[in-house]
Structure prediction request, 607 residues.
Amino acid sequence: MSRFEQGDDAPLSYVWRADQAAMELLSMQPGRTAADKAVRASVIAAALIEHDGQGRRISYSRNRNFYTEARYEGSPMSYATLVPFVDALDAAGHIHHFKAQQGAHLAPEERDRLQSAFWATEQMAETLRGSKLAHVGPTSPIILKDEDGHPLALPRTDRVHRLRRGVDEVNAGLAGIRLTVDPAADPANWRRSEYHLRARKLRADGSETWACTLPTPTPHVVRIFSRGSFDLHGRYYGWWQGLPKARRAELLINGAVLVEPDFHWLHPTLLYAMAGEALAHDPYTTGYWPRQAGKLAFNTYVNAPTPAEAIGGLLKKRHDKGDDGEPVWKYGYRQTARILDAIKAANPRIAHLFGSDAGVRLMAIDSTMAGKVMKACRKASTPCLPVHDSFMAPASKGAFVEGVMASVLDETLAAVKSNFSRTSIQTILHNAPLSPSGAAPSAEPVEPSLPEAAVSPAGSVEAFPVVDVATPLSLVPGPSPGPAGHLPGVGVEPPFPGGVGSSLGSVGAPLAEAKVTPSPEAVGASPGSVGLFRAFVGLPPLRGRRGAVAVALSSFRRPPPFPAFLATLRDEIRAEAAASRPAPRPASSPSGLASLARSLPPSAEAA
Prediction:
C-alpha cells in the first residue's frame, strides 16, 4: 500500500501560472499551442506553490474519461495537454511522481482510493526560486459540488449566468482594496515565505498553530454551492478567511485599521423566523450546562440530519483543542445526549428543526445576505470583505457597515417569514383540555420566545383579529404538559408586533367570538402532537384527542414551493393527524338493542 492516503493532497488547479522564463530555466519545451503553454505554466506554478506552502502532493487523473466531465470547464486542461507534460517533468527529474494503479479509485478502504500525484523536487524549487507567478483566477467564480465534495459541471441556465455575474461584480468591487499587515503588529505572529503568509494562533496553554494562506494580488472570492444545488450553501470564500480572528484584526484595509462587525446569533435568529418567532433569549443557554457547550451543541444539532449524527459529530471533537488548550468537547455519550436534549428543551419553538440538516440552507440565506451587504458597501464606496457572517471594514466606516447589516437582516427576516406563510390564518381553540379549575384556557397572545405560553384567568375567552398574511402567526404550545396532563394555553401572535406586518395592511375580519368545545377526551393530550409549523403549512383542522387547535384558513393564496425538509415534516404531521382522528360520535345514545345489534358480527346480525 502507498504511503499516501486520501486527503493529504491538493487537486491540480488552474488559478496561477508561472512565466515562460521558468520553462527555459528547466530546459522544458514551452509547448506548441496557446493551450499547451497555459497548462504547462499552471503545472509549474502548482508545484512551486505547494512546495512553498503545505508541501502536499498535487493530484491529477490519468484517465481520459476524467477530462470529459467538465471538471476543468473553461480551461484548456485536458488529457493531451496535461499528462504528457507531467511525464516529461518526471523524465527530466524535476518532480517526484506517483502513478496510481488502474482502478485504485475503487479500493475498499476510502483512504486507499488515490489519484496519481506529483510534487516538486528540491532541485526544481531551488532552480525556480524567485520566479514570479501570475494570478489568473478560477475559470468560474462559482463552484457547484456534489454530495462527496467533487466539482460538477455548471448548467447553462439564466440562474447560473446571474450568479456568475453577481460574483464578478463583487470581485470588481474588491479589486480596489489593498489588504496588508499592520507594521506595528508583533512580527512573532507572522511569517512570510515566497508565496504564502502564515499567521500564528496562540492557545492559553502555550501551544500554537499556524494558518497558511496564499494571498492574491487583490482580494478575490469564489462562491461555493454544495450537494448539486444552488439552494444549498453558497458562501463566499477568500484567502483572508483562513487567518485566525486575532490576526485579522492586525490587518489594514487601504492602510486603515479595520473592525469586523458580525451578525449576532444569526442562524438561531433565522430558525426562529422560520417558525414565525422573534428570538428574545440566548439560544445557547440551558440553565445547567456551560454556554460554550450549549453553543457548539446547538449548531451541531441543527446541522446534523439525525440526533445520532449530532452526537457522533460532537464526540469527534474531543480530540480537538480550543483556544484555551482544552478539548473542544469534553463530554461522553450520555452527557452529550443530555446536552442536546437540554438545548432542544431551551428552544421549544424550533425543536422540530434540530436534527433537520438545516445548516446548508441557513448558509444559503446568510450568503445572500453577505452579497447584499457588499453591494450596498460597494455603492457607498466603502471597502468591505466578507467573513461569512461578519465583515471586515475600515474602523471609520464601521458604523455605516453595521447599519447596512441591520437593514439587510430586517429585510431577510421579513422575507423568511413571508415565504413560510402566504395565507390569512384564524386560529381558535378546539377540544382544548380543561384547566384544573374546569375552565378552558384563553387565546391570549404570548411573548415571543418565552418558554411557556400565558394563560388567561379561568373562564375568560377573548376574541382576536386576523393578522396580516405577510407575517405568519405561530401556534405556541407550552413545552410540556402541566399537572394531570393539562396543556398550557395556546397563544397566537404576530412575529413582530406593530412592526413588519402592520406596514402591509390587514386582511380578513376579526372573529366575533372564539368558540370553545371542551372534551374530556382532550385531557392528557400531549403538546408535542401540535407541531410548531402547523399554523403556516396549510394543514387541515385537527380534532379529537390529539388535536388541541383547529386552524381555519381564509383568503388563500398559493404558497411558494416548500423546501424538501419542510415538505417531509408537513407530510409526517398530516399522516399523524389522519391516523389519530377518532370516529364520529352518534348524534344520540342508541338503545340497548341497537347497541347489541351493532356488536354482533355481520353473519349473526343477518341471522
Summary: Residues 422-559, 586-600, 603-607 have pLDDT under 50 and may be disordered. The longest strand covers residues 197-202. Residues 158-265+360-418 form one domain.
